[in-house]
Amino acid sequence: MMQTGPHKVAEEDAFYKEKDKVIIYPRGFNITWGNDHRYWRIVNPNESENLSLAELKQVSWLEVTCSTDNVELGKNYKVGFNVSLRPDAFGWKGLDVYVMAKVGKSGNFFPKKVSLGDDHPNQNFIIPKTPLVIPIDPSTAKENRSIHLGLYEVWSSKWKGGLQIHNAFIEKID
Fold first, then answer.
1. Are strands 21-24 and 97-103 parallel, antiparallel or unpaired?
2. Which Pfam families does its entry note (predicted)?
3. Is 29 inside any structural domain?
4. 58-97, pLDDT tens digit by residue?
5. Is the distance from CB of 131 to CB of 78 less than 8 angstroms?
6. Residues paired with 63 in a beta bridge
7. Tens of pLDDT along 35-45?
């Protein structure tokens, strides 16, 4: 699908579902300024979906979101991103980045503050390090049976780059 405008819009078929886990690949992300090659690029070595990554060149406004439908009422889900930092990554030290999730489009956010500045380049790691658990209230309306997940740093106006996002995940834990 050809996209116009500066922001990358998620493609609906860019996920893999296994038993209790949904893995969302970079084509499934909404990325602010993601269609502007000065700021982001989608790397897809060997045309393999599960090896692709969204690579941040440089931005002052980090906003990457994705979602999944059909979560089970009365269950808890852990969510996060599988990321790495390039050796030339910059701007992350002392910077608070937030992984946030909510149930339904109008739900309340569950935030988790993370730091990327102390992790080693070229090694994949999960953020947040301690699970962000999202409860799906059994009284939730049927139209709110979705989880919306995001990675944000929109407050500092500092330039940052070198982040590689391999995928996001939403996993039922009980």
1. unpaired
2. PP2
3. yes
4. 999 999 999 998 788 889 999 999 999 999 999 999 999 9
5. yes
6. 152
7. 899 999 988 76
Q: Which two tokens stand for residue 160?
A: 């940052």
Q: Which residues pair with 114 in a beta bridge?
A: 97
pLDDT the model gives residue 14: 87
Largest CA distance in the chain: 47
Task: Give residue 46's pLDDT.
Answer: 62
Q: Which CATH number belongs to the domain containing residue 42 in this structure?
A: 2.60.120.260
Q: What would the pLDDT profile of 111-148 be if each residue is shown by its tens digit?
A: 999 999 766 667 899 999 998 999 888 877 666 789 99
User: Domain total for the chain?
Assistant: 1
Q: Give the whole-angstrom CA distance, residue 69 versus residue 80.
A: 16
Beta strands in the chain (DSSP E): 15-18, 21-24, 30-31, 40-43, 53-56, 62-69, 76-90, 97-103, 110-114, 125-135, 146-153, 161-172
Q: How many CA atoms lie within 13 A of 61 on its CB side?
A: 6
